[in-house]
């Protein structure tokens, strides 16, 4: 038995936006959750391209690297390989876990929408859907084609949360990290995990509608 909070599965696939997934892992670790990690082959390439983080593919070494990077406690992070079919996420009888695919490639989106289950990430998502567990998918593509949109609609109707990596600006970001935290905060909201990454709408914002109208009128003048 461990003292960690319930596990959350985080899968990184081959879309741009590896920073979102890596930051999510760090925040989940800091919040005390056990974190189960899967990283696709394409995601390793994206991580190497977009960041200065070096992550090995072999699960045991990956655990060591992520533990050092995130400051996790021993045993807090578990990593599973592409075809580790004995992983708990591969079966509905395994330990229940909310799952986040972040970033989610449109290829993964398609595979999950059609129940392909060609690798452990796809199978874990399939299990989450059939067991009615929380599944959040964070696609990062632009523009979306009708194929992408139809797959998103199909998944949404099954209860999957489609949360595009589309950061807002009302918190007045000053750094790239602020934009990353905006998306991670929205993911945490869906998981029901408390955080202070980004102020919630209305917090510390005292501007009234009349103030806004006056500012607009002043600008127009």
TrEMBL record:
For the region Disordered, give the residue spans. 202-221
Give the E.C. number(s): 2.5.1.129
- Tell me the GO molecular function terms: carboxy-lyase activity; flavin prenyltransferase activity
One short Pfam family name for this protein?
A: Flavoprotein
Q: Which residues of this UniProt protein bind dimethylallyl phosphate?
A: 170, 186
**InterPro entries assigned:** Flavin_trans-like, Flavoprotein, UbiX-like
PANTHER family to which the protein is assigned, alphabetical: FLAVIN PRENYLTRANSFERASE (PTHR43374), FLAVIN PRENYLTRANSFERASE PAD1, MITOCHONDRIAL (PTHR43374:SF1)
Task: Return the broad EC class.
Answer: transferase
Name of the protein in question: Flavin prenyltransferase UbiX
Which HAMAP family does the record associate with it? ubiX_pad (MF_01984)
Q: In which family does this protein belong, per the annotation?
A: Belongs to the UbiX/PAD1 family.
Q: Where is the composition biased (Acidic residues)?
A: 212-221
What are the record keywords, sorted?
Answer: Flavoprotein, FMN, Prenyltransferase, Transferase
Q: Where is the Flavoprotein domain?
A: 8-190
What SUPFAM superfamilies does this protein map onto?
Homo-oligomeric flavin-containing Cys decarboxylases, HFCD
The UniProt function text for this chain reads:
Flavin prenyltransferase that catalyzes the synthesis of the prenylated FMN cofactor (prenyl-FMN) for 4-hydroxy-3-polyprenylbenzoic acid decarboxylase UbiD. The prenyltransferase is metal-independent and links a dimethylallyl moiety from dimethylallyl monophosphate (DMAP) to the flavin N5 and C6 atoms of FMN.
Q: Where does FMN bind?
A: 14-16, 40, 105-108, 140
Q: Which NCBIfam families match?
A: PRK06029.1, ubiX_pad
Q: Which reaction does it catalyse?
A: dimethylallyl phosphate + FMNH2 = prenylated FMNH2 + phosphate
């Amino acid at each position: 038995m461990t003292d960690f909070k319930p596990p959350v599965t985080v899968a990184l696939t081959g879309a741009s936006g590896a920073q979102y997934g890596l930051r999510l892992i760090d925040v989940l670790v800091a919040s005390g959750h056990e974190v189960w990690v899967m990283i696709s082959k394409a995601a390793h390439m994206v991580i190497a391209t977009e960041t200065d983080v070096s992550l090995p593919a072999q699960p045991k070494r990956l655990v060591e690297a992520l533990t050092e990077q995130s400051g996790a406690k021993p045993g807090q992070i578990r990593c599973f390989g592409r075809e580790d079919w004995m992983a708990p996420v591969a079966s509905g009888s395994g330990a229940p876990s909310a799952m986040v695919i972040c970033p989610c490639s449109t290829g993964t989106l398609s595979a999950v929408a059609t129940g392909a289950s060609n690798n452990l990430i796809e199978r874990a998502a399939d299990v989450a859907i059939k067991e009615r567990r929380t599944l959040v998918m964070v696609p990062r593509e632009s523009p979306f084609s009708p194929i992408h949109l139809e797959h998103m609609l199909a998944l949404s109707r099954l209860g999957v949360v489609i949360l595009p990596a589309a950061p807002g600006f009302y918190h007045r970001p000053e750094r790239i990290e602020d934009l990353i935290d905006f998306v991670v905060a929205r993911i945490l909201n869906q998981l029901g995990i408390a955080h202070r990454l980004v102020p919630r709408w209305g917090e510390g914002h005292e501007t009234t509608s009349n103030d806004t109208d006056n500012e607009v009128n002043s600008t127009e003048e």
